[in-house]
Design a protein that fits this description.
It is a single chain. By secondary structure, this protein is of the alpha/beta class. It contains 9 helices and 15 strands. It has 2 domains: 249 residues, Rossmann fold (3-Layer(aba) Sandwich), CATH 3.40.50; 87 residues, 60s Ribosomal Protein L30, Chain: A (2-Layer Sandwich), CATH 3.30.1330.30. A hairpin with a 3-residue loop joins β5 and β6. The longest helix has 33 residues. The chain is globular. The mean pLDDT is 93.
Length: 362
């Protein structure tokens, strides 16, 4: 039987269904060139991560202080919604890595406030490659977890690429394994209007989006390269050299210390009609941006504060667009743009806080 991987979280908070692999680092620039020239898929490469700058660390602390009560309430709203929908003990399956800290928090929320028990595993899903079927097999056939108790969680949506990937992957998995896992996706913020359930459409700086491995159990995003064999979990690298800068458990404590019984309730969440309208708004504006900035590859455009943050940290950005230069939610993005000499453009009518364009290096 395969063995789950411990990140820097306690076992009762999160187990990663990933295989630790030998690091083969690519520089951000090299990675971008290989992705855009089609020589390698983004999931085949990973970059070394360095410690956050003191300024950036301060920003992370400031945003956590500012939004911890808001996020705590949203997490407990989501926990209540899941318990109400599943009506049995729950197996939270978060999508590495953006979903991981959210999964840890929802797991705590269900265990502390509902009548049900919850366990939490974090697994890999990759654009164009699908979900890690070996991880699902492990849960269902090795651990004998009831398929109907599995709930998928991510941090947010943007264009809806991962939502689509999840829907298709679970449909294929259910057919091939003759099981019935729900392909329902739960997120905190659904700016793309593509998730099945969310708490808000608001595009704000969810603090965990600011950090990479240092808020996700010191684990890299998932990797599928030649070190991954047919029966392996998808791979990852452990960034143990960043242990002294690891805020994974600190962040969980900061948010969960703000949990209140009053937050654990069925809040008014966006309905299908509102989601469809939000989705239309996002898709229309993405098309408009692509035309305005002559972008032909949709993968080069990343809407939303969380996705823009990832571009600014992990890719080669060409342009940062914000809808308000004085919005505290995008202050960190403007800081990075200034550090990297990236142009910042203000479009007040944009329906999300930020959008980043990846540089065409092909």
């Amino acid at each position: 039987m395969k063995t789950p991987l411990m990140g820097s979280y306690p076992e009762h908070d999160c187990l990663f269904l990933l295989k630790k692999i030998k690091p083969e680092f690519h520089s951000i620039e090299d990675k971008e060139r290989l992705i855009q020239t089609g020589q390698l898929h983004y999931s085949q490469m990973v970059s070394q991560e360095s410690k956050p700058t003191p300024e950036y660390e301060k920003l992370f602390h400031d945003l956590t202080a500012k939004y911890k009560h808001k996020l705590a309430e949203e997490i407990l709203n989501l926990s209540c919604l899941i318990s109400n929908n599943v009506k049995q003990d729950v197996c939270i399956v978060s999508l590495v890595r953006a979903g991981t800290p959210i999964g840890v928090l929802v797991n705590k929320g269900i265990n502390n406030y509902s009548q049900y028990n919850s366990t939490h595993y974090s697994i890999s899903i990759v654009r164009d490659k699908g979900i890690d079927v070996n991880a699902l097999d492990y849960l269902i056939f090795d651990l004998k977890i009831p398929p109907q108790s599995i709930v998928f969680i991510d941090g947010w949506t943007a264009k809806g690429v991962i939502t689509k990937e999840l829907k298709k992957a679970i449909e294929d998995y259910n057919t091939s394994r003759k099981v019935n896992i729900s392909n329902t996706l739960y997120v905190v913020s659904d700016i793309g209007g593509t998730a099945d359930y969310c708490v808000t459409f608001e595009d704000y700086a969810i603090p965990s989006a600011l950090m990479n491995s240092t808020v996700s159990g010191l684990i890299s995003r998932s990797v599928i390269n030649d070190q991954i064999k047919k029966d392996d979990f998808h791979g990852c690298i452990s960034y143990e050299h960043l242990a002294q800068y690891d805020y994974s458990n600190w962040f969980i404590s900061e948010i969960s210390n703000c949990f209140k019984t009053a937050y654990y309730k069925l809040a008014a969440v966006p309905d299908e009609q509102q989601r469809a309208a939000r989705n239309q708004l996002t898709q229309n504006y993405i098309r408009l941006l692509m035309k305005k900035f002559s972008v032909t590859d949709i993968n080069r455009i990343k809407p939303g504060i969380a996705e823009a943050t990832r571009v600014m940290l992990r890719r080669v950005p060409d342009l940062l667009i914000v809808n308000d230069a004085s919005n505290p939610n995008t202050a960190h993005l403007i800081t990075i743009a200034n550090e990297k000499s990236i142009e910042v453009c203000v479009l007040p009518e944009m329906p999300f806080g930020a959008c980043a364009l990846i540089k065409d290096v092909d």
